[in-house]
Every structure is written in C-alpha cells, then in structure tokens.
TrEMBL record, chains A, B:
ATP binds at K7, Y8, G9, G10, T173, D174, Y179, R184, K209, V210. Pfam families: AA_kinase (PF00696), ACT (PF01842), ACT_9 (PF22468). Keywords: Amino-acid biosynthesis, ATP-binding, Kinase, Lysine biosynthesis, Nucleotide-binding, Transferase. Pathway: Amino-acid biosynthesis; L-methionine biosynthesis via de novo pathway; L-homoserine from L-aspartate: step 1/3; Amino-acid biosynthesis; L-threonine biosynthesis; L-threonine from L-aspartate: step 1/5; Amino-acid biosynthesis; L-lysine biosynthesis via DAP pathway; (S)-tetrahydrodipicolinate from L-aspartate: step 1/4. Substrate binds at T47, E74. This is Aspartokinase. Belongs to the aspartokinase family. GO terms for cellular component: cytosol. GO terms for molecular function: aspartate kinase activity; ATP binding. Residues 274-358 form the ACT domain.
Length: 416, 416
C-alpha cells in the first residue's frame, strides 16, 4: 500500500463527464489499496474567464484581489471531484489550500510555497478517505489567499507529495509523457521512459511546456518520484499498465541512461536579442545596463559580454519577444547615454535551440557535433550558452524547425 | 462619521457594469466620511450554475462539498468589487467568511452564524479601507466552509452590522422597500417608510420575500437599524435623499406608527392542508401524527386540533405544496393505522392570507373586520391562526387576490 498523489490538468477537469472519468481512475487506484491525494486544476477556461472579469473592470487589477478571484476555479473543481468520488462509492473530502494549510509567501499571483502541514490530510488518509486538494494556491502569513502563477497546480502536487512523503506523484496531462523534442516539429520524436530531474529542469527552462519549472525544482529538492502521463487513456486500463506508462523523472542515472548521451532537443521561439555595443568596460557596467531592465520586471535569459577591445566591450542578452519593445525603449532612452554606449541594436526574431542530457558530462564532442551540424545546414549561431548538461544556441527564428530536426537526427534520438 | 454596512443582491452584482455602479455608490458614502463595510451576493445566476454542475454529477451531492462549491460565487464577487473600488480611487480589501472569521455551526447548506470576530475588519476600517466581505458563508469549528442557505447574504450583512456595532445596515435590492402588500396583486399597495422589527418578522415568515427571515431575527436580537432600499437608483443621487429612501425597520413604536393599526397584508400561495380525522384523543397523539412528517424533513406550518367529541378529535395542519404528496403518503401508509384514524383528507390548493400590525395589540375588532370582509366576498375560512400582531387565515387558493385586495382596502392601507 503506497501513498500516491495524482494531479489533473484543466482539460482533464473540463466537463462533468471528464470529472467523472477522473473519479473512476482515482477509485481504481484506491481500490488497489493505495492512499490517494488528488490535486485538480480549475476546469479549462475558468481561470481565464475569472481573470477576464477582473480586467474588464480595470486594466491593472490588484494582485491580492486577483488571487481571491482566480483561486475559486480550483475550489469548484475539488468540490465537484469529491462529489464524483462519493458517486464512485468512496469517502472523499476536499480542501482549499488554506484549509490544509499550504503556506506561501505574499507574492500574490506568483507566490512560492514555504511549508505544508500534512497532519490533517494524513488523518483523513488513515481514515480511508481520498483527499482532494486545490492546486495553484495557498495562504500567506497574514491569512490572504495567494496563487502560484500559471501551471502552479503542478508545483502544488509535487510539493504536497514531498510534504506527505508520497511514494509517487503522477502528473496526468494531455500528452503521454516527455518527448525527445516536440512531436509537432519532428515526426520521429520519441517518448522517454525516464528522464533525470536535472534534464527535466533544463527542458522545462528551455521551453518544453510539459511541467511548470518550479514543480521540477520541488521534485529535485525533495526527491519526489514524479511521473508525467496521459489523462486521455481509458480510466479503467489495468493499473499495472498505467503504473509503467508516461515518463518517470528519476534521481539516479541508471545503466540504461548512461547509454543515452543526449535526452532531448528543447527549443524556445519568441525570443529577442539585444546588444549594447561599444560600452566602456569598467566594474558595475553589467548592473548599470541590466538593472533598469530588471526593474521593469523584464526577465533576462542568456547574457554574453565580449572580451573588451581598447577598453570597450559589447554586451548582448535575450528577453522574451513580448518584452522586446519595452526593453529597447528603456535601453535607448535611459541607459545608452548613462553608460556611454555607442549604440543599442536588437533583433526581435530569434529562437533558442538546446541539446540536453546528463550523458554530456562524460562525453566529449557534443558541442562540436552540434555546431558542425548547424553549420552544414547553413545556420548561423548568434549566441552560445552552456551548462553541465545542456548547450543552447541562439539562431534566426526561421531556422528553428530545421535546426531541431537536424540535431534530433544527428544525436540519434529517433532510436530507442 | 458613522459605520455603515451595505448589502447588494445578485442582480446588483449581475455584470461588470453593475459592479462598477455599486463601487460608485459605496465611494459616495465613503467620501461623505463614513466607514464602509460591503457584503455582496454572488453574481446573479452564478450560485445556480455552480449547484447545477454538482447536481449533474449526482442527484444528492454531499452538503459539505456543495458549500465548498457554492461559496465561490461570493468570493468572486468580493474580489471584483474590491477591484472596482480601487478603480474609484479607494483603498479596499476583500475577505471570505473564514478570513474575518465569521463562525458558524456545521449544518452545511443551512448553517447558522455563531460568532463574528470584528477585530481585523475594524483595523482595516480605522486605516481608511473599505472592507468587502462575502455574504452567505462562514467557517465551522472544524475549519470547513459552511453556507447559510438561500438569501443568506441578508443575514450575513445584518450579523456583521451587529458584530461591528454598525450605525445602520442598508440592504440594497431590486425593490425599493417593504410594501403594504405585493404591488403585483394590489395596484394601490404603498411603500412603508417604517415597519417594526416584529411586523417585518411576521411579514417575512408569511411569505413576503423582501428579506430572509433569519436576517430579520438577527436585526431584532441585536437591534440593528436596518433599511431596505433600491439598488436601481442612480448611484450618484444625493446621500441625503438615499439615506431617507426605502423602508426602515425600527425597534420602537413611535407616535406615527401607533396610528397605523395594520401595516400590511402578507400572503403565501402554494400551501396545502391535511386533516387526520376521527383520531382517539389521548396524550401524545400530536407527536404520533406529526413526528413521522417532521422526520421526513417536511416543514409544518399552521396546526389545529379540534375539541374532542366522544373521545375523538380532528387534527389539521398545513405543509408546503411541494411536500403535499409525500406527507399524504406518510400519513396514509404509516400513520393512519397506527393512530387508528378514521380518515386522512387533504386539499393541495389553499393559500394563507395574513394581516400584520403592531397596532393590533391596542385595537379590538381587527379579527371581526377581517372575517366580515372575507364573508362579504363569499370567501370561506378554512383555518385561523393568530399571534399578538397578526391574524392568518387559510382560504381556497383561487380567492387569494380577491381576499388580499379586499383586506388592503378595508384596512385603508392605500392611504398614507
């Protein structure tokens, strides 16, 4: 008998019929003897509907009140799912985040979980109940409701699994696992049976949208065995089949994994590149350039500073395309003169392509294979950034698919 | 500077535009120097939508989970109203019942408020904030959300006003006050400027739907000055005009009130009458007859037991028409033989018409005027029940309008 956490996305909770299917699936697990905690998202479209009402009133609604409003979507979901579980003959009880409690900081609309008290939930599980807990939200030290931001229910589920010392956290979604790359771009993309936590972390940060990155961080920090699998299967498929489906995020590099040098090709379109050129190279210059951009709440991704020539340097970085115009405006009007830059140049149409794999650590030549492959396709590399287990390059956006397909092929990701 | 509680119904909160109007009205009061607490209902239709989802899953959803679901409607309303108040340039904060906290018992879907801790709300008011609190709900001793039942937001508002020792509680609704009778039945019906708490209590219990009866009980118990007024007026009408509009529920019978013998004619259609006839008259017989009916959760209204003749008596009572068939079935199949009744007879088409007024206490002849008037119209009285300030009669339903109009005229309710 294990303690299992299930998480279901908004599509899986999208209608009364689908909620009943979720209940059937959970009942199957419960009847097999497992203690079950379920974390559903809001019904698909509901969070957007609620935020839309708030934005109809004013363009910049107060974040604290937005969380008050948006958190109700999950509260409706847990109540409906509990009722559907009753209809399956199970004892079930639902809790909002504040009732558990799931404690967060006070960064409304993007709060972070600080602590979860599992006492109440454990008592219910010991009494044979299925416990249904709202995703996406918790309660701050002042007793205000705070939400975790988009995709936050993944994080809720993994954090609850960590707090309850669950045996496994199953993230049910509308894809059947983590792929070597996006199957819509590369037909031969293959589902991975396993992926390490570090690879998953890189994939999430590099634009693979399967899991919210903070949920992966939680899984890593607390070593939560996490599986991504499909909610679109027949809810009554045999438990043994379901337990081995999808992609498992692991914490040990086992034998089979060492054989795979590269696990996947991630990519992120909608990037923009900005270069501040001919800047006097002196201490504090990076902060003087990036500080005003960060102050405007613009996320900065890759950063490169060239070796200085004649006491001057070029400073290049990327931002999301949606922030491009605002970042250019800040740099041109506020920063350029202040740092005595010669010019500010930008390209709003770039994308980032990355190869990811723990095998990289013990293999040389990955970078050279990657660069050679792109060169053979005539693709110019604009920026490079690397970590222990990934190499990312910035390229012209129009070559994204070509690059991804070529790299998928050269690293033999289509072969099991 | 006074402390004022406003309550707005679902129609007043029915759209973003209407919510903005509520905010404008509240802002007008706040700018006049008053400390403001606002209790909005869910947007019209929302509670029904939510309960509908639950009933799509199963015919008899768990009440605890229903409350989890239904309470979200008001939570959305308070967030939206707080945002609309911000847009009016006010500081405002919203709270769900559990955040205040508003403490209730655990009778889910029909909970009663046991205590309200006003500390947090008072601190916000002292800081110049408008405080927006969910109606309809609170939190039980175990930390579960419990709702107060249909119309519960009236009760929330009056209870909050009592706990905060508010100077006045204004119930904004889609009628402009309490009338001498239903204006849809009697064209000459007149709005009352004042009505005593006791009269209001009788009116509410006799079918006048302006306020939930428990809100009137609260107003009486804690002597909350409560005013019923229209939310359909221009939100920017002068405060002085608005403060004198609607109907005030008072606790003292002032001079003007003594002059009015009768304040209103209330009526309740959809009643049904049941008679258990020829029952041996012995101790405990009332309980033996009504116990099984009450056990089936059927509310019993008027009850009459005739003087016994030859050791036998007739036992007559009324129930809501929706419960008539079930009550008849219980009496015929379970009770009749057990209590050795000769027969069980029923009439599902009766209505109750009542005259209400504190002036009745010091005036004789009200009952005879009422009975004479009905006799002159050829209306047979089936049952009579009286209290200190009301006389109710049961009549054939088809005479309802005729009776109400005749009584409205004879007691001169059309004259100010």
């Amino acid at each position: 008998m294990a303690l299992i956490v299930h998480k279901y996305g908004g599509t899986s909770m999208g209608s009364v019929e689908r909620i009943k299917n979720v209940a059937r699936r959970v009942a199957k697990w419960h009847k097999a003897g497992h203690k079950m905690v379920v974390v559903p998202s809001a019904m698909s479209g509901e969070t957007n509907r609620l935020l839309g009402l708030a934005r109809e009133i004013t363009a910049n609604p107060d974040p604290r009140e937005l969380d008050m409003i948006a958190s109700t979507g999950e509260q409706v979901s847990v109540g409906l799912l509990a009722i559907a579980l009753h209809a399956e003959g199970l004892e079930a009880v639902s809790y909002a985040g504040w009732q558990v409690p799931i404690k967060t900081d006070s960064a409304f609309t993007k709060a972070r979980i600080s602590d979860i008290d599992g006492t109440r939930v454990l008592a219910d599980l010991d009494a044979g109940k299925v416990v249904v807990i709202t995703g996406f939200q918790g309660v701050d030290p002042e007793g205000h409701i705070a939400t975790l931001g988009r995709g936050g229910s993944d994080t809720s589920a993994v954090a609850i699994a960590a707090a309850m010392k669950a045996d496994e956290c199953l993230i049910y979604t509308d894809v059947d696992g983590v792929y070597t790359t996006d199957p819509r771009v590369v037909e031969e993309a293959r589902r991975l049976d396993r992926v390490t936590f570090e690879e998953m972390l890189e994939m999430a940060s590099l634009g693979s949208k399967v899991l919210q990155i903070r949920s992966v961080e939680f899984a890593g920090k607390y070593q939560v065995k996490t599986r991504v699998l499909s909610s679109l299967t027949d809810p009554m498929i045999p438990l043994e089949t379901e337990m081995r489906s999808g992609t498992l995020i692991t914490f040990e590099e086992d034998e089979t994994m060492e054989k795979a040098v590269i696990s996947g090709i991630a990519f992120q379109r909608d990037e923009a590149r900005i270069a501040v050129m001919g800047v006097p190279d002196k201490p504090g210059i990076a902060y003087q350039i990036l500080g005003p951009v960060a102050d405007a709440n613009i996320d900065i991704d890759m950063i490169i500073q060239n070796t200085s020539v004649d006491g001057k340097t070029d400073f290049t970085f990327t931002v999301g395309r949606g922030d491009y115009a605002r970042a250019m405006e800040i740099l041109t009007n506020q920063v350029k003169e202040h740092v005595k830059a010669e010019q500010v140049r930008g390209d709003p149409k770039v994308s980032k392509v990355s190869v990811v794999g723990v095998g990289m650590r013990s293999h040389v030549g990955i970078a050279s294979t990657m660069f050679r492959t792109l060169a053979e396709e005539g693709i110019n590399i604009q920026m490079i950034s690397t970590s222990e287990i990934k190499i990312s390059v910035l390229i012209d956006e129009k070559y994204t698919e070509l690059a991804v397909r070529a790299l998928h092929k050269v690293f033999e990701l289509d072969r099991a």
